[in-house]
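#data-curation
PF: Archiving a pair of folding outputs for the training set. Convention for this channel: one message per protein, sequence first, structure tokens after, nothing in between. First:
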Amino acid sequence: SKVLALFSNDQMAREPITANVNRMTCNACWDCLVACPYTAIEKEEVKNRQGAVLKMLARVNEGVCQGCGVCVAACRSKSIDLRGYTDEQVYAALAAF
């Protein structure tokens, strides 16, 4: 019955399209932070158990991200993707814009 209720609505909600940072490959160059027109990229400190900063990473604030893909194009380490899209699709959309 939950499935029927989902499809009985006039509109269906879907996951918002937002950027995602690969924490293993991000090198904290901050090109994405500079490029983002919505200031959705934040600096994140990765700390050990004692609280010492091990490294810095880019982090996407999903509440602010508009899914425009500018950060994907700006990332030289290819550490950012747009959920549901290939890099080629993002680049093509940005080129058309």
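PF: Second:
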Amino acid sequence: MDDLKAHSPTLEGLKLMTKVIEEGAAELGLELNKKKCGFYTRETEGNVVTAGANGNSETAGIEGDVETAETDGVEGDEFGDEFLPQIRKGYKYLGITQLEKDIPEENFARMTTKYIERTKKILQSVPCRKSCLHFGKVQTNRPRTNARMYLPEQIGGSAFRSLEVETCIQYIRRYVYLMAKTEVADAKKIFMAMHKGGCRSPISDFEHVRRLYKLKDLKLDKQININFKAVTRELIEEVKKEDARQKKADWGKSMSYPKMVLSLEQSISFPALKSINIDSAKVAICNASVEEQIFFNGKKASVGMKGDGKCRFGCLADETNYHVTSICSRGALITRHDMVVWNILKACRNKFGTPVGGTPKALQVEQAVLDEDYSIRAGASMLMEKRIRSNKPDIVVIRKSPKLAIVLEVSIPALKNYNLQKDIKITKYTKNSVVDISDKNVRTVGRDLNFCQILAAKQHCGVMFCPVIIGTDLNIIYS
């Protein structure tokens, strides 16, 4: 029922009106909700009438200036005593007026003015301006497909759920609830009649979702004792799977990179995307580089714009994704490899622990850490009896008991060169370390002296070679 408001010049009149309303409601089979009722009056000469939640009023005598439950201890309030007691503070905070009879037009105008002033202040602030410029540059200079926002994290997406899918899930819940709950049996009959007549209803909404996502027809309208949670969960999972399939199919049409990722879906992973240390700008540039496979100057050359397409840092090579992120001689661009090596060193230190009776020593590049149980060398050439070309792996860990040597070599290639770089590292350190190994001879070079073979003979132990290959788009392929 609607709320009722009655006005009377006297307290006795209010009580009489309450009694009449209560008796009239009883005749209609209704009950007056006394918890929401109350008497609200202005100050009278010598008396203030207050009301509790149950509608019982109390009269208290006052003299001079008083503080009542309505004023809440506020003296000289500029809004007067017209506010309703329980919502006075809220209305005062919003800057609008609440009288015994509300004024919606005036309040709406005040709220609109207040919101516009606050919004202008926020949008014209310096932090907001900086944020707009930053994200504008990200969107303009670092393009990426919108599909990556909704793709699963397994293939490098952000795993956001689209508004369309959320709406379809709500349609499914409404339909299954309508069919499963006996409390809405009457509403179910009405909606089924509306559906047969061609009107929109929760049933027609579900049928649209079922056809859109190719859901199986469970014929819930003919079943009894339906498990609401189980059926809803099953249908929602089908919607999510079909939506992911459609997103992948649409994403794989545009470029070669999505096709490569989807072909490796069972073995590829993007663990860095879950790290709290990575921000949106880093993710954006990684996504842009791998999807375009060519950076800004190179992109200009490919579409006929000004620019020769060469690296902006003075290299004669084309400014491609692989060149910028992996092999450019510019120091600022190759620190990524050193960062990976340093984090592996930290992980090794945490794994081996602090040596007994001493403090942990610094793990610096090109220095060795010698302890009683193990030694770690990072980025330093190792002396060999015979001269070889590849004698400087990234990390060498030698465990003394039981004796074992572990060689770690880091590479950060593009996805299309992932397996090639892996083969180059394996060939360079386990097959032939005498000649320079590149993409031109990695498949044809013969076996000769290699680093792991010489290290095993020198240390009199087994050697394990582990290539650490991390893609430029933060991916790892498990084999």
